[in-house]
Amino acid sequence: MNTRQNKAKLLYDPEIERTARRLRKEFRERLSEEKLYLEILFSEEEMAGERTLRDLSAPSLGAQPLSIVFPELERPLKLNSGFINLLPKFSGRTNENPQRHLQEFIVVCSSMEIDGIEQDQIKLRAFPFSLVDAAKDWLYYLPAGSITTWALLETAFLEKYLPASRIGAIRKDICGIKQRCDESLYEYRERFNRLCASCPQHQISNELLIQYFYDGLSLKDKSIIDAASGGVLMNKTA
Length: 238
Prior knowledge:
Elements: H1 2-11, H2 14-41, H3 44-48, H4 53-57, H5 81-86, H6 98-110, H7 119-126, H8 133-140, H9 150-161, H10 164-175, H11 185-197, H12 206-215, H13 219-228
Helix pairs in contact: 6-7
């Protein structure tokens, strides 16, 4: 008999029962609070759509308008992967030449001719594929709808990567160019031409370009040019 009573005491402990009731009550209260929180967090409209938490946390691309507004065309324009792979790439590094990138980009775009579609429309749609890394970020961070034509996109690109400060620096390099000790006349001329081509906006006249080129020559090559021109080149008149 005593054994049966001891077992009953072990099976029923008032302290354990009180603790269990308290824990069950706290659990129900937390569950109720969490349910209320979810109802507030997700509107009835979202809940009715049966969207999952993953759906709700995913970024909505449709809600992010692009910086470029593409005009409607009379016929569809699709850029194939072969054409996109031919496009030059520009990342926005300081050692890259934005003017050269534009020139190469235009050459590639000119290879695609579609009846009824202007070249500017092809350039407008293809240019984002020619940008990578920081340059692509720059394009996507432009104000929404700020680009509607190729001319606007080209201007924005040059203002970003060929600003007035950089143009001034290139002008200074052109004016102060000097032939290196180990540089041939041909190499010096090519370097001078590349420097001028890197910034068509330098606004330096041809006469001054010739003078800067001549002044930068080594004494030996300057003498060769003077002899070939029948006297001091800069004393010649046009």
